[in-house]
Structures are given as C-alpha cells and as structure tokens.
C-alpha cells in the first residue's frame, strides 16, 4: 500500500488538491494498486491552527509517507509576518531541508497550439518549446552558513554565504545529464563564473561529469545571458542545469513565458526517490474559493509523483494522456482562454471530472 | 577643458566609438565648450599589448580624466583564459572597484513605434515601456569577502559572500528615489527577503529611505517575481532598484525585451559625479569590423556622460534629439529593421554622420 501525505495548504491549494485526489483514486482503481492519502496542515492554515507553518506533526506524517503531494501556501493574511516566519519560506525550505530534496525538476512546455498564451512575440512562441529546469534545491546561498548581521549603525551589514561542494554539484549534474539523455541530449549549465568562486567550481565539476555522457551536448551560460536567451529564443534549450538561486529566477521566467502557469507541475526529489510534488504557480488568493482555478498543475504533479516516487509509470502516462485530451477538446479553465472566450471556461471540478472520465 | 578617457576596447567597440567621437566633436563645436579625448587600451586588446586587461597606464589615464567613455570588451580570442583573467571581468570590475562607481543606471525604453522589435507579445509590447534599472555596482556578492575554495576531494567547496551595509544600501536607494521623482514617482525594490539576510536589511533600509520621499510610491518584489513581471508587463515599472547581482540579471532582461540592445546606453557613477559610460550590448565579435554595428548606444552613452559628469545638459539634449530624428526618419542599422527591410539598412558611419548633421 503506497501512502501519500497531502499538504493542500492555502488559497487555491485545497480546491485543486480535491481534483488531484479524484484523479489519483481513478488511476488507483483502473491500474489496480492500493493507495492511501492522509491530509496535513501546512503554511498559513498551519500557522492559524498550530502556530507554525510547518508543524512537527506534519513533518512526522510526511516521514511516514512514500511521497508528499503539496498544494500551495501563503496569502494576504500572513503577509505581514516577519520574513523569517513567512509560510512559503518556512514550509518549503523546511521540507526541502528536512528531506534533503536536492533535485528540483521544473518542466516548462509550450505546445505550438497554445502559442498565443505565451507572453513572447508570436513568431518566437509559434515554434513552442520544451525546457526542463533542473534546479539544485538544498544548497547555495539558501542554506549556506554563516548568514546574518554584523556591525553597528551605518556600518551594520547583512550577509549570506553562497557555497557548493563538488559532491553537491556532481549529484545534481549527473541527474541533469541523465534527464537530457531521455530528452534532446543537451544540457545548458548556468552560472556566473566570471564573478563567483562558487560558479568556477560549479563549471569545473559539470565539465567533469560531462565526460561520462559523451552523447549529451554541454554549454555553459552566464545567468544574465541565460535570462536574456530565454526571452529571445527559449526553443534553443533542452535541460537547464541551475544552482538554487539562479534556478529560482530562471524557472519562473520559463513558467511565465509558457503563459499557462496553472499547468506546470514540479518534482523535488532526494537520493532515495522520496519526493515532494507541487504546482509551479502560487496560492492565487485572488481567485481562491471560487471553484475556477486550474487544477491541471496539481494533477500533473500527482502524475510525476506516481512516476518518480511510486513506480506507477503507466498510471502517470494515463493521467498525462487524459490531460492532453482535456486540452485538445477545449475543456479549459478561464486562465487558458483568450478574453473573448472566457465565457466558455469550465470550472475546476468540471476539468477534474473530465480527466477522471478520460482515464 | 573637459578631458575624456576613451576606452574603445574590442569587437565593435572601436567602430562605434569612432561615431561617438564625431558626435562629441559636433556638440563641442556647436555648444562651444572645449573637450579633449585620449585613447587607452582596455580588455582583450590590452591583454595583447600590455599583458593585462586593465593596465596601470589605462587606470592612470582615467584618473586624470573627467569621465570615461567605454566601448566593449571581450571576444573569442580571449575566451579560453581562466575566468579570473577574462577581459570583461577584469576591465569592468577593476574600473568599477577602483573608482567606486556604485551607481549604475541602465535605462531601457521601448517606444510604441518600435514595438515590433520587442521579443514580447504584440499586445504587451504595443504600450511600450520606460524602465530605469538602478543597480548597485560595487557591493554584493561581486566584491564581498571571503570568496574562494576550501576543503579537499569531494568535500571541496567554492564559496562567495553576499554582503551589504546600511550605508551602501542607503546611498543607492536615495539616488533611485531621486531618479523616480524626475520620472514617474515609483520605485520597485528587488530583493529575496524570504531567503536572504542581506535582503532583509536591504528592504529595511529602503523602507527608511522611502520616508524622505513621500511623493514616490514604493513596492518590494522578490527577484523571481520581478523577472516574471518583466516578461508579463514591463509597463508596470518605473525605477527598479536592485542589488548588484539581481540588477545584472534584470537589466539584461529589460535590455532584451526592448529588442534593440544596440540603442541602450548606461552610466556608472561615483559620489563625486565621476563616471563611466558604456553601451548595454557586448563586443559582438560576429559583426565587428564590417561597419554595420549600431552606434546609437555608444552615442547615447556619450550624451549621458555630458549630462551627468560634464554638466553639459544642453549638448546631451541635442544628441538625444538628433538620435530621435534618425529613428524617425528611418536612418537605421540592420539590427533595427525587420528581415524584409534589411536591404534598407544604413552603415555605422552613415548613422553617425546623420546624427552629427542633425545636431
Ligand atoms: C518561497 C521561496 C522560498 C521559494 C524559493 O525561492 O525557492 C519559491 O520562490 C520557489 O521557487 O519555490
Ligand atoms: C562582465 C560581467 C562581470 C558584468 C557584470 O556581471 O556586472 C556584465 O555582465 C555587466 O552587467 O556589466
């Protein structure tokens, strides 16, 4: 029996999670494998109910599960908490650190058929793109020590430490090359080696790892250039291998230029295959509770979970095929429709139901 | 007599600098002020001639001048040098550090008339935008110490220090608010305060400074969100106040989405008004030596120099008006023309000559 910790969170989290649960039940039924789910509080609602964004009971529940399906956290209610108590930060960094989820995969795909959604110029978007951002998620300036304040008065400073070891770079680089082998055999490694000592080591180790994957083409780009290239011609990329901080920025650019953030899943894995799966978008408090949010990112996150942590590849394929069918047949929430077609929008539950039936 | 240190550099640097010099001579003549220029080697050509990208003789020449007009540096010939010897890094970081050029201004403007050049979707680009990136240029992880390597074998790490003092944040923030007062009264401060101690202090000091500018609206954005917003709706921004590293990335996105990098000047100033002025684009070795590069970014950099370091505002205005005339009348290099009109392109010198005549 596989067991899943469900952390729906805040905003649209609970309503899109509802659909993902329905879809999980549908594939468990069809492919005949036992699956149990257990809900836990996280984020703002956990602050309200337990006084902290990531309560010990939630962490314990996740430890006992085979995978975590995460919704989204945060909202205006908790916005005035001090930075270190923000729900996003506490929940995400806490879970990433605790479970050592070093490998974050953020696929961003633009189908030529949906090119008009992209924020890029039509001749650029029309060719579509398929970029996988492989972001290192437990190192870099996020977790590097020391971090804090020193000095007095106007000389007082805030400081952080960017740091990567060879070992940390090597393990994420290997996974990026392996991912590229199953895709278009190209890795673009992102750094700022013209300024950062951390990046010089990053580039050195990535070059070493590349020797073991002679079939994969490797290029190195400075982060500023990578950001520019993404908004000039995203189709030039296959796998983008990024340190934590640069991956944060570049994966968000990738998400935005698909024009359909509500469709993008992500996976964060550790070395034993345990993982946390979550949509790329946020908690979207402005539309929460109305039943109009796009559940596809959450549903595709469940598919990634089945594939990477629960070894149910066929079920994952079935979900992805059903989602493709919904898109093909125009079973779309409002975010995927141009202004003049918004009246044709389906509700969150209608999209979930269609996908369940298609399975 | 104002004296200018000319550092043309590599690639297209010398040929676009040639036009800037002609334009400077034209305004000096018309507005009747004495101006002398002196050339110095920098970048790759300085490595070739003197063994280093920023020779002491060049620094000395700059010290004796009232301002530096910089072209661009780097190219394939020097690409295989170790990261710490790269011409871009050595020349730029060396000059920024030596002259404490902490205030980098990178204006990025898209005129609605040139909207089709933007890489953004036409309905987004059609409203145009006018963003000024105010980037702190002598602090942050660029110059923070310690920086280096430690440990052995697979535990060996590379590390860098991100650090800002209140004083450093305050001086750039003040200039950003003052710039906003002359523009559209809005400052967007960029940080990553949900992760970085440096950013928490950054946000604190920016909030303090804001009190002295009650007429300017202030918002804070996380860098990942700022990058997304730039490719979704750049028109929402006026002044973007950025720490060094985030400013590097965001200013390049801004430049790219104008679609006309060859037209963007920049200024890097210290607290006494001394400054270095350079185009946003690079040395473009692929088109160097052909006489087809766009000289406008270099010419507009000269205009900023006249305004900010040489107190010749009228001459700067005259240059900018002449450039606008060239654009209006279609006196354009190939980079500004759509594919089917490339045959109408003017050469570098023709654009320079037109601007001189229009002055
Ligand atoms: C909320 C924040 C700490 C987080 C990050 O920076 O990693 C988020 O932006 C993300 O990308 O998942
Ligand atoms: C060449 C490099 C050191 C430099 C920087 O990162 O500042 C460049 O990208 C820039 O933006 O001027």
Automatic annotation (TrEMBL), chains A, B:
Annotated residues for binding of substrate: 96, 106, 135, 224
Gene3D superfamilies registered for this protein in UniProt: Isopropylmalate Dehydrogenase
Residues that, per the record, bind NAD(+): 75-88, 282-294
GO molecular function: 3-isopropylmalate dehydrogenase activity; magnesium ion binding; NAD binding
This protein's GO CC annotations: cytosol
Origin superkingdom: Bacteria
Swiss-Prot/TrEMBL catalytic activity: (2R,3S)-3-isopropylmalate + NAD(+) = 4-methyl-2-oxopentanoate + CO2 + NADH
Cofactor(s) this protein cannot do without: Mg(2+); Mn(2+)
GO biological process: L-leucine biosynthetic process
UniProt domain Isopropylmalate dehydrogenase-like: residue ranges: 3-355
Cross-referenced Pfam families: Iso_dh (PF00180)
Pathway it works in: Amino-acid biosynthesis; L-leucine biosynthesis; L-leucine from 3-methyl-2-oxobutanoate: step 3/4
Binding site for Mg(2+): 224, 248, 252
PANTHER family: 3-ISOPROPYLMALATE DEHYDROGENASE
HAMAP family listed in its UniProt record: LeuB_type1
Assembly behavior: Homodimer.
Protein name listed in UniProt: 3-isopropylmalate dehydrogenase
Record organism: Thalassotalea euphylliae
């Amino acid at each position: 029996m596989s067991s899943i910790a469900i952390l729906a969170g805040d905003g649209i989290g609970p309503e899109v999670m509802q659909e993902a649960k329905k879809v999980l039940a549908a594939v468990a039924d069809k492919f005949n494998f036992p699956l149990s789910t257990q809900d836990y509080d996280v984020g703002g609602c956990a602050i309200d109910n337990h006084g902290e964004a990531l309560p010990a009971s939630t962490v314990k529940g996740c430890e006992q599960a085979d995978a975590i399906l995460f919704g989204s956290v945060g909202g205006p209610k908790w916005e005035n908490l001090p930075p270190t108590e923000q729900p996003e930060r506490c929940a995400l960094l806490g879970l990433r650190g605790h479970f050592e989820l070093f490998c974050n995969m953020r696929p961003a795909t633009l189908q030529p058929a949906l090119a008009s959604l992209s924020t890029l110029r039509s001749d650029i978007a029309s060719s579509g793109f398929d970029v996988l951002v492989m972001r290192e998620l437990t190192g870099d300036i996020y977790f590097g020590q020391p971090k804090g304040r020193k000095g007095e008065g106007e000389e007082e400073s805030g400081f952080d430490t960017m740091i990567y070891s060879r070992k940390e770079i090597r393990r994420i680089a290997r996974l990026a090359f392996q991912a590229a082998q199953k895709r278009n055999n190209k890795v673009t490694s992102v750094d700022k080696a013209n300024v950062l000592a951390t990046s010089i080591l990053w580039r050195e180790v990535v070059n070493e790892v590349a020797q073991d994957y002679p079939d994969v083409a490797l290029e190195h780009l400075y982060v500023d250039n990578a950001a520019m290239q993404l908004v000039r011609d995203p189709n030039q990329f296959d796998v983008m291998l990024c340190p934590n901080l640069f991956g944060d920025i570049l994966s968000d650019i990738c998400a935005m230029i698909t024009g359909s953030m509500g469709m993008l899943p992500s996976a964060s894995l550790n070395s034993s295959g345990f993982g946390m799966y979550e949509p790329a978008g946020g908690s979207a408090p402005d539309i929460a509770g109305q039943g109009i949010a796009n559940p596809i990112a959450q549903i595709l996150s469940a598919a990634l979970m089945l594939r990477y942590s629960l070894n149910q590849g066929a079920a994952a394929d079935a979900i992805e095929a059903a989602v493709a069918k919904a898109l093909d047949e125009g079973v779309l929430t409002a975010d995927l429709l141009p202004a003049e077609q918004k009246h044709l929008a389906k509700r969150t539950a209608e999209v979930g139901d269609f996908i369940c039936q298609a399975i």
